[in-house]
Structures are given as C-alpha cells and as structure tokens.
Amino acid sequence: MVRLDGATFLMGTDSPEAFPADGEGPVREVFVDPFHIDINPVTNRQFAEFVKVTGYQTEAERIGWSFVFQGHILPERYEELVERTVPGTPWWCLVRGSCWRHPEGPDSTIAGREEYPVVQVSWNDASEYCRWAGKRLPTEAEWEYAARGGLEQKLFPWGDELTPGGRHLCNIWQGEFPTLDLAEDGFSSVAPADAFPPNGYGLNSLTGNAWEWCADWFDPRYHETASWTNPVGPPSGTARVIRGGSYLCHRSYCNRYRVAARTSNTPDSATTNMGFRCVRDL
What we know:
Layout: E1 2-4, E2 7-11, E3 28-32, E4 35-37, H1 44-54, H2 59-63, E5 65-69, H3 78-81, E6 82-86, E7 89-96, H4 123-133, H5 140-148, E8 175-176, E9 180-181, E10 211-217, E11 240-243, E12 263-265, E13 274-275, E14 279-281
C-alpha cells in the first residue's frame, strides 16, 4: 500500500466526453482525509490466500454461475455452457461453472495468472475480503483522488492523450466492439496488475483492465447532496459504484476508462471484468 495525504482536489468533469446520465459532473472541490491504498488491485494470489484461510465461497460459486463475455467462450462449448444472454447487451452470457477460479467458464483456469486482478467477485465478496484483510473498499472520492495521481482535471491518470506517442498505457478494446478486438495494447482479456506504468502516486491498473468496486451506493445525482468533505454515496440504493473501466471499454460504446467516469452494478453481480482494490484508514 501507499499513503496518500489528505487534500482538496477537483472531482468530476465537465468534459463533452462525459455521460450526463451518469452524474460525472459538475466539477467540484472535494476534500479527502489521508488514507492508505493498495498499489495493485487484489490479485488471484491474494484472493486465493483469503479463501484458503477462511474457506470463503464467492456468490458466483454458491449460485453456480456468473457472467462471461461472449468472446471468451469456446465456440464448440457455447451451446452447452451458455444458458442465456443479457437483453440489450447480448455479449454478456450466463455461464454455469464460471467463478473467480474459472473466470471464463469451467474450462478456464487462473493457473499462470496469479498476479492478475481477481475477477468474478461481487461487491459482497470484495467486502468480505476487505474485512478479513483489515481494510475496506475505497469511497468513490478516494478512488478518484488516487486515480488522478496528483494531476488536475486530466482525462487519464497520465494526461489527456489516450496513447501519447502511439504508446498504449492501459488495457482497453481496440477494433470494433463487440466482435473484433485487435489487442493492440497486448491483451484481449485481463492483464497482469502491473502490465502498464503506474500513475503519479505509484498506483497500477487504474484505467481499463478490470472495473473496481467502490464502497458507495450509486446515484447519478449524489453530488447534489453529498458533503464536499469525505463524501460518500446515498445511504441506500440498488447498485454500487464501479470505477476505472475495463478491457471491454471502447470509445464507440463505453469510454468510461476516463478517471472521472462512473457507472454501477448490483452488489451481487460477478463478471469477467470486475475486481477491486482496498484502502485502510491511518
């Protein structure tokens, strides 16, 4: 972990690239107290240790299925494994036997991916890990403060240009979503947590790769009522905030790999592109 000093920063964005319905703006001054944050998202190795010690079963394991991206399912097993797809987003498939140990379905494994971010973990699973580790999930404000890496109102943790000098600095989709991923950044699925350079605070994998759960309930209008000092989301809701985007993000469909972007998912959901990192109070 690294310690981040408390500070006031400009949270949110008024960029024309923002999704107004997500409540990314307006830009406002927000203060967060000092805290420690994981350098990397929680990895398969770390989550395996938690499971070994506690015997914990994730929600996907207990339910018996989770969501897998269509491009990661073996074509010859598609009819056998896929029970249904999600209306409106048919590239998300309900696959029996998928879980954190088998993220792309029962034929997949995390062997050799010990230092990759753990995925197929729900918000509830992530909270249980945090409790075991003596940590917690970051608030949305803490996450954005950390992701910005000391830069003010930049689109990405390194600046405003997605590929400066033609160099890929994060793991997102290149090509035509959802059918053609050129993998020009070197990856067509989750990448190792430290595959790309860290931001100004020394933190890895904050853009693309895997979405990260935050503590807050999601509300597109929460900034209208939230405190500007250590803000948190509403007291209740139906979905939790996720931040950072994933390897499935593409400008044509979901350019939420910007540091101010936000979206949500239900706290019991698990997918091939959602993980988390922890923070700890001083």
